[in-house]
Each structure stands twice: as C-alpha cells, then as structure tokens.
Amino acid sequence: MSQYSKNRKGTGLAPHAATNPATNVTDRNHPGGENPSRNGSSGAPRPAVSRAGHDIGLLGMIWAQDHKRILGANGGMLWRIPADFQFFKRTTLGWPVIMGRTSFEALGRPLPGRRNIILTRRPDALKPSLRTGGIEIAASVSAALELCAGTEQVWITGGGRVYQEVMDAGIADLLVVSQLDLVAPVPPGAKVTVAPVIDPQRWQLDESRSDATWRPVSGDGAWRVQYYVPR
C-alpha cells in the first residue's frame, strides 16, 4: 500500500517557488518564497553512481507518514494533504517509479508521466482492468532496477514491505519523507502499514535541504519534508 495511492488532485500552487535539490525541479508549495536552505547550494551531493548499481544515478525512496510512522491502512490512505500530493508528483515526474502490486492496485491506474514498474511474481493476479500497456512487470527489486539501467533517477514509492526490503539491502541513496503533523484515525481492526525505521547509525538528516518548520496546513494538516542521506 502506497501512501500516495489515492486521489492526486490538489490545490492551486503558491505564487513563489523554491528548488527541490533532490530533483532540481521547482517546489512551489514552500511558504514564503525561495528558501535558501532548499536551493541545492549545500548539503550532501548526489552520488555519480547509485549504491543500487546498474549505472543508475540515484535511487530514492519517498513516502508520507504520520507521527506514528503510519503510511495507511487496509490498502488506503487515512488523510488528504493536497500540497504533499503535488510535491510527490513534482519529485517523481519524468522518472521510473517502482511499487508493489498492492500499492498499484490501490492506485488504480499507472501514474502519468512516469515509467510504472510493478513488483509481482504473479502478473496474472493483477486485476484485469489494470493489465494495461502503461506498466512494466518485474519479479523482484533487483529485476526492476535492471530495467532502469542507465537512468538518472529511480524512485521507490511503496508499499511498506518494498520500502523495508530496499532499506535492509542498503541500496537507497536518498530518503524523502513527508512528515505529517497529525495522528491518522485508524479504524478498529484495520491492517496498518508503517514506514521503515530510519536508523540514525546508517542515515543522517540533511538539514540543508530539510524543512526546519512546518509548511502551511493543506487539507487535513500541516506537513514538512525531511531529506536523509547515507552516513
């Protein structure tokens, strides 16, 4: 289950912009116009070649979580933060996204403007309505990365088990985490998906790119973006 697996329709963009250094694209939802801490002028540089190999430039993982690290429940989202949806779109647009089958089924369609690589060992298990020409199938994370050989950026977008697998393998170069200023209302008995623990022995917060304060409320709450790089 991906935390970005539902409606991506957001609010209008703010009139000012700051640059997202992970992707060198404009982040128009940042409050107060351009933020020098997010303009890419400092902080850990992107590796020339990813730890994931396959001549990939950068392998990133991106997710949104509440204060309890919850990503969602029962295959769906538990909040609506339109500005974060827009941030996710701008960050991943134009690059391959890799997600598990459950996340893709929750999404209900391929993400436009991106290569959609779906992890499953049982392609026949996909819902017939989702067996479209807009997706690629890979039996493993390694096979998915091989499909992306030579790509400048690749993004892991869910769900919880895929995040954990990549985290355990130690092949990600960047974590982009939207921290939501809320505790998700989990229905009684729901199957909850949580984000992986970010081990401070293996990852460090890149303060030069991370938000020091909360961004304005959007939908259900305020939010901020945290960038983590390997130690």
Please give the oligomerization state of what you see.
single chain
Radius of gyration: 17 Å
CATH architectural group: 3-Layer(aba) Sandwich
Helix content: 10-25%
Task: Please describe what this structure looks like.
The chain has about 230 residues and is of the alpha/beta class. The chain has one domain: 3-Layer(aba) Sandwich (Dihydrofolate Reductase, subunit A), CATH 3.40.430.10. The strands form 3 sheets. Strands 3, 5, 6, 7, 8, 9, 11, 12 and 13 form a 9-stranded mixed sheet that branches. It has a two-stranded antiparallel sheet with strand order 1-2. α2 links the parallel β5 and β6. The longest helix is centred in the middle third of the chain and has 11 residues. The relative contact order is 0.24. About 15% of the residues have low confidence.
Using brief descriptors, characterize the structure shown.
231 residues, alpha/beta, Dihydrofolate Reductase, subunit A, nine-stranded mixed beta sheet, two-stranded antiparallel sheet, 4 helices, 13 strands, globular
What does the secondary structure layout of this molecule look like, with pairings?
Layout: E1 18-20, E2 25-27, E3 58-65, E4 70-73, H1 82-92, E5 97-100, H2 101-107, E6 116-119, E7 135-138, H3 141-147, E8 153-156, H4 160-169, E9 174-180, E10 192-194, E11 203-205, E12 215-218, E13 221-230
Parallel strand pairs: 3-8, 3-9, 5-6, 5-8, 6-7
Antiparallel strand pairs: 1-2, 4-10, 9-13, 11-13, 12-13
